[in-house]
Structure formats: structure tokens, C-alpha cells
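Fold these two proteins, one after the other.
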Amino acid sequence: MAPGFTAFGPARLSAEVVGAIGRSRKGVQFDALDGKPVRLVMLFLVQQEQF
């Protein structure tokens, strides 16, 4: 993925909500409001019908 790019889309992978947390000690430039590198990223996979 290109820096600063976020992808959202439907997926039918699990019947349950799945979450993951990623951590970067150096940080990743992510166009944060404060201009600082992002150190924690959260991902949630939810069935489309649960939105």
C-alpha cells in the first residue's frame, strides 16, 4: 500500500468481529492531525450486515 493510503471494503471472512492492533516504535507518517507519526494502528473486520 502507498504511504497515507487507507483501504476499506466488504469481506466475508468470519462470522465474528475480528480486531488487530499494530505497533510501530519509529512511527508511520499517516497525515495525523497533529503532524506526528502514528505509532498504533487498529483494524476491525466486521460483516457488512453488522454496519
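Now the second one:
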Amino acid sequence: MFAFLKHCLDAAWGSFFEILSWVCVKRRVYFAKLDPSGISQTCPQCGTHTGKKKLSECVHVCDEYGYASGGGIVD
């Protein structure tokens, strides 16, 4: 029973991303699926590994490049 539910959930997410991709193409908005492992630990400017952060940390700072930006948490 649980295997069936997991397959249904996987199919729903697959459909969601397919529709989202289509809508982004139609509206000329860039869309890309990312591997979630480690994406918040890499500087978007230079690619340097900046280390693991806590969920409460809202600011990204790269000591190597000097880049700083706000996080994805909205208060």
C-alpha cells in the first residue's frame, strides 16, 4: 500500500515540474531543477565552498570572492 502511495506522490511531483517548466518557457522565465545537496554551501559568484550553514543564517558571505547576499528566508 505504501509503495503505491509513494509512486503516486512521485508522479504528482513529476507532473508539477513538467507543468512548471512549460509555464516558464511560455513566460520566458529561466527554470532549472537543481540537486539540493550542498547548493547553499557554494558561492554563486565563484563556486567556492563556503561551509555548512544553519537554517537560521540569512546571509551568504564568501571570504574568497568578497560576495555577500541575503538568504532565502523571508521574515
